[in-house]
Amino acid sequence: MVRAVVCRALGAPETLRLEEFPSRVLKPGEVRVAIRAAGLNFPDVLMAAGEYQLKPELPFTPGMEAAGDVTEVGPEARGVAVGDKVIVKMRHGAFTDEAVVSPSQLTPMPSTFDYAEAATYLAGHGTAYHALIDRGRVEPGEVLLVHGAGGGVGLAAVEIGKMLGATVIATASSDEKLAIAKSRGADHLVRYDREPFRDAVKRITDGRGADVVFDPVGGEVFENSMRCIAWGARLLVIGFTGGIGSAKTNLLLIKGASVLGVRAGEAVRKNPALGEVRLKALLQWAEEGRLRPNISHRLPLEDYAKAMRLLLDRKAIGRVALVME
């Protein structure tokens, strides 16, 4: 029997249930993967609550990314073999012991990662890559302001921003989160409750402001970011964990600034070539040891609600993984 976390009614994490199902027979072109770890992302929580742009039909299993071993290859499935260690990319369905997918959803695991690291890599770092390289076009020497730098995508942005040669200002809500951001390359650290970040950015940049803002928080954070930007700044809208912010068009006009929405997955669906370039770079950087997810919590599958709460309560530093034993 296969265990899976099932959402039968939209709501809080505690409304989900762990259920058992028999394995199904593979259809032509399908592959069976024994899931060893699944990564949690904030959209998983939003999807279960019915608050995400993607709204799967009920019932469904949350989870956008996982890693495991190929255990069976169906007829007509090409490019994969039993025993392959793989990352599994999904729109939902990863919180389970076993997944039936197509070969196109599989990516070889970096040899430098364990299963939990592999299961928490591509979504967060892929979003940061798309934001900073495809959308923000960060240049060496620019100032990059990263909000929510203790979160999964925030830490990824710190890492990749530093790789791109930017001066990285990391903001977060605790010293512990900022310490991890510093260890991943942040040049300057700002704790939200100790100094208004807009003042800190102006102080750090001698009044010039940030060239690029990476914002997964939204709300007042986004609105205040417009008050500490340089001429020609790019404000990257990653998410809205802190609410939906309003763009002051006068501030954007005065600074010649751009607001850019970031949807890494949708961008690849619209233009698959973008995804190929991104994936090649991310896998190469992982093999070279230049990028690695920071996983603050590894919990068993049955603790899915607790794991999701860690994201809601902002207690995770980097990533949270469900580990199947």
Features:
Quinone Oxidoreductase, Chain A, domain 1; 325 residues; 7-stranded mixed sheet; Rossmann fold; globular; 6-stranded parallel sheet; 2 domains; 26% strand; alpha/beta
Radius of gyration: 20 Å
Strand-and-helix sequence, N→C? EEEHEEEEHHEHEHEHEHEHEHHEHE
Q: Tell me roughly what share of residues is in helical segments.
A: 25-40%
Q: Overall pLDDT, averaged?
A: 96
Class by alpha and beta content: alpha/beta
Report, as a whole number of angstroms, the end-to-end distance: 14 Å
Instruction: Note the total helix count.
Output: 11
Describe the model.
GO terms for molecular function: oxidoreductase activity. It comes from Bradyrhizobium stylosanthis. Residues 11-322 form the Enoyl reductase (ER) domain. It holds the Pfam family ADH_N. InterPro entries: ADH-like_C, ADH-like_N, ER, GroES-like_sf, NAD(P)-bd_dom_sf, Zn-ADH-like_protein. The chain has 325 residues and is of the alpha/beta class. It has two domains: 2-120 and 294-323, Quinone Oxidoreductase, Chain A, domain 1 (Alpha-Beta Complex); 124-265, Rossmann fold. 31% of the residues lie in helices and 26% in strands. The chain contains eleven helices and 15 strands. Strands 3, 4, 5, 6, 7, 14 and 15 form a seven-stranded mixed sheet that branches. A six-stranded parallel sheet has the order 10-9-8-11-12-13, sandwiched between helices. Strands 1-2 form a two-stranded antiparallel sheet. Strand 12, helix 8 and strand 13 form a beta-alpha-beta unit.
